[in-house]
User: What shape does this take?
Amino acid sequence: MRNTPRRVFIYGSCVSRDAYEELPGRGEDHELIAYVARQSLLSADQDATARLPEDLGLEHAFQERMVRSDWAGDLWERLEDAEGLDLLVWDLVDERHGAYWFLDGGVVTRSVDIMGTGLMDLLPEEQLIGFGTEDHLEAWSDAAEDFAERLRAAGLFERTVVLEVPWAEASLGGEPVPASMGLAPQDANRLYAPYYARLRELGFDVLSVEGPVYADPGHKWGLAPFHYAPEVYERIDAGISARLGLGHDAG
Assistant: This one.
């Protein structure tokens, strides 16, 4: 029997983090060693920090850490620092924002943290590559292939699980769920499909949460297509527990 907790790395959004918070045995059976959020895979290894001011003017330390990490493109450095990693949990929710490409080098995510701030003035609006477009999918597919190769070389590919959770179109009460930053749930589910298909093609372990999913109006982060009812997180956690070898029951 293993005496030390399994070490979990989250690369994704509140979907993975909220599911992890509900995973039985936290602290004893497993521990979260890193959380990289609000970053497109397209920004990995794409350093744009030379354009980032010293004072970001952001309200929360978490926001500042994520923005600086994204502009540094340091995802792989974070992974290399995560010694003894047992499971990398990856979700694609924050790909929805698209990314900005600087013509002379560097890619940054159009994250919620920089929207409405002065940082937007630093970004080339004409170089926004929108999620779901042909250009975005092509570039992202290449980045995913490179990511898979590097994970394999590091012995992490078999320890990676991708969460595929549809955006909820209805709440627990049956009401329609509003769009997120202009993207309606049904449109998001259609746009995400080829991204998940590409990951399956590359051999990634995709944890697909099938069946009806509902948004929770009482969710701590508010009503959104990816702020789910408790039962959805239970289904996610059942899959994560199985991959960690914990054997926890989703009930």
Summary: The first strand starts at residue 6 and ends at 12. The mean pLDDT is 93.
